[in-house]
Design goal:
Length: 287
C-alpha cells in the first residue's frame, strides 16, 4: 500500500466516525491541497477518492475521466455512478472546510468593513447564499441606491422585486415599503411571546430558501439563528447529530431520515442554533 493511500484510509476513518469533528475535515482539506500539487499518478488516484468523500462530485468525475482507463469495468462503473451526481449537483454541495475561530473573527471584521449589517437570526447571510455580490452593482428597488450586495432569498409581497440591499432589510424599510415579509409569520415555532422578536424575524431578517415552505425554529423563548443547509455528513462533522435528534419534533422514522439525509438531496435539512443555550435544531423538507 502506497503512502498516499494509507494516509487517505486513516483520514477517511476519522472523517466517518459518528462524532466526527471539524479537525477531521480540515485535515482532509490539507491532504486534498497536497495531492492537487503532486504530479504522480498515485496521488491523482487518491485525489479522486478525497474529492468523492468531500462531495466534490464534478471534480472527482472530471479527474477520473482524465486518468481512468474506461475499458476497466471498475473504472467504467465508478464513472457511471459519479456522472449523475456531477451533472445534477456539480461541486455545489461539497462539505465546507470548517473555519477556525480566528478565521471566523476575520470574516466578521471583513463583513463589518463591507458595511453589511449584523442579523442575529441569520448571522452569516453571505455564507448561506442569502446575499449575492455584484462587482458592477445593482439598484436597490427600495432605496434606489447602487449596492454591490443584494438579497437573493424569498420575499413575500405583491410587487415584483428584483434587488434589495442589506440596509433596507435591516432597517425594515423594504418590508414597510412593499408591505412584505421575509418569513411567513405562521411558519415558526411556538413559544416566543415577544411580538418585537417576531417583527425582527419576518420583517428585518433575510430568509432562506427551502424545498417547500420555509420554517423557523425557536428555543429558550426566542427564535434561533439560521446557520445553513446541511445533511448527515455535515451534522456528523460538527458533532451535533445526537443533539439535533434529541428533539420532540421528530419521531423515530424521521430521525432515521435525518441520519440518511444528503445536503442538496431529496430530503434537505436546515440547521439552526439557539441564541441563548447554544442548542442545535433542525428543520427538514423534501423536494
Amino acid at each position: 500500500m502506497d503512502g498516499y493511500l494509507k494516509r487517505y484510509i486513516e483520514l477517511q476513518k476519522k472523517f466517518n466516525e459518528p462524532d466526527g469533528k471539524p479537525e477531521s475535515v480540515r485535515a482532509l482539506y490539507d491532504f486534498k491541497e497536497e495531492l492537487e500539487q503532486a504530479e504522480d499518478m498515485q496521488a491523482k488516484e487518491v485525489l479522486v477518492n478525497v474529492y468523492n468523500l468531500l462531495d466534490y462530485k464534478k471534480s472527482a468525475y472530471d479527474l477520473l475521466c482524465k486518468i481512468g482507463d474506461k475499458s476497466e469495468p471498475k473504472v467504467f462503473k465508478r464513472l457511471a455512478n459519479l456522472k449523475g451526481c456531477a451533472e445534477k449537483w456539480g461541486d455545489h454541495y461539497a462539505v465546507k472546510k470548517p473555519k477556525t475561530e480566528e478565521e471566523k473573527q476575520k470574516e466578521f471584521e471583513k463583513l463589518m468593513q463591507m458595511g453589511l449589517p449584523f442579523f442575529r437570526y441569520h448571522p452569516n447571510p453571505l455564507d448561506t447564499g442569502a446575499f449575492k455580490q455584484s462587482e458592477e452593482g445593482v439598484i436597490c428597488d427600495c432605496c434606489q441606491k447602487t449596492t454591490h450586495i443584494y438579497y437573493s432569498g424569498p420575499f413575500y409581497c405583491v410587487e415584483e422585486i428584483n434587488y434589495i440591499c442589506p440596509d433596507c432589510i435591516a432597517s425594515g424599510k423594504a418590508a414597510e415599503k412593499f408591505d412584505g415579509s421575509f418569513q411567513d409569520e405562521y411558519s415558526v415555532d411556538d413559544g416566543v411571546e415577544d411580538l418585537q422578536k417576531l417583527d425582527e424575524l419576518i420583517r428585518r431578517t433575510p430568509g432562506y430558501c427551502g424545498w417547500q415552505q420555509e420554517y423557523w425554529r425557536a428555543h429558550c423563548h426566542d427564535y434561533c439563528a439560521f446557520l445553513g443547509y446541511t445533511g448527515a455528513t455535515e451534522l456528523n462533522v460538527l458533532g451535533v447529530m445526537e443533539e439535533v435528534l434529541d428533539d420532540y419534533m421528530w419521531d423515530e422514522e424521521q430521525k432515521e431520515m435525518i441520519k440518511e439525509s444528503v445536503n442538496g438531496g431529496h430530503l434537505q435539512c436546515y440547521l439552526f442554533q439557539c441564541l441563548h443555550c447554544g442548542k442545535h435544531l433542525l428543520w427538514m423538507d423534501v423536494d
